[in-house]
Each structure stands twice: as structure tokens, then as C-alpha cells.
Amino acid sequence: MATVRFRDETAAGKPVTEWEVAGLPDRMTVRDLIRLRVRQEVARHNARPSDRFHGLVRPDDAETELNGYRLREPRRIDWERQAEIAQRAFLANGFFVLAGDRQVEDLDDVVDLTVDPHLVFIKLVALVGG
After folding, report:
1. Are β-strands 118-123 and 2-9 bridged in parallel, bridged antiparallel, or unpaired?
2. Nearest Cα to 33, choosing from 104, 125, 123?
3. CA-CA distance, 35 to 51, in Å (whole number)?
């Protein structure tokens, strides 16, 4: 069983947040790793729903803030819906994922977590006027 470390970084390489999940299979697809990551962050939010969500992608009907998203009112979030949004964002280059030294480019790429147990997620920010 493997342990994976998820880390969010800015485009400049500055760490934003980091956490680990243990007890995983040795090999997982990028799709499954994104779904796992989203499920974990939504579970943390749903344990104590608030009007702020700190996660990989923006929930439906939320506004983007500096380090997260503001919901219209405190509510629970559907992790499966968030996972769909995250997968679409990955395919549209809304963020990219580094596994060890390499960028993974396809949802079906398999990551060997015994070799690359550190996943870095870098969100890309759209430029104003560009």
C-alpha cells in the first residue's frame, strides 16, 4: 500500500497547501487520483460546511476569492459533481499535475506511487484582457 502527498503550488513554485493520504494501491490513474483528492477536500468541507470552500476547482454557483471560493451560503458540496468539474478543468488546462519530475498529460496516465508518491497541482490563472 502506498501513501501519496498532494501539494498545491503557485505557478512560481510557492507551496500553498499539502496533505497525505495513506493506504492506496501502488498504481493509480490520474483520473482516480484527481477524484480521490477532490473527495478528500469535499469531505473536509462537508464535515463543517461554511460559505468558503478551499479546493482544486470552483463549485457551482461560487465566486472565486484569493485562496478559495465563496459560496452564496454555507452548504454541503457533492464530491462527484466536483470531481467532474475537476476532470474537465484538467482536460482544459485549468491546472496541471506533476508526478515526481514529470507532467502527467492524460487522465488515463498511470502513476506508480511507489516511485512518484508526491503529486503537485498547479492552478493556472486566466489573465485579464488576454
Report:
1. parallel
2. 104
3. 22
* Cα torsion 13, 95, 37, 27: sign: negative
Residues 6+ apart with CB under 8 A from 3: 20, 21, 22, 23, 24, 113, 117
50 is written with which cell numbers? 461554511
User: Residue 130 above 60 pLDDT?
Assistant: no
Instruction: State the Cα–Cα distance between residues 47 and 3, nearest whole angstrom.
Output: 23
Residue 33 three-state SS = helix
**Residue 72 to residue 88: CA distance in whole angstroms:** 23
d(CA 14, CA 33): 22
- Give the tens place of pLDDT for each residue, 55-71: 999 999 999 887 789 99
pTM (predicted TM-score): 0.92
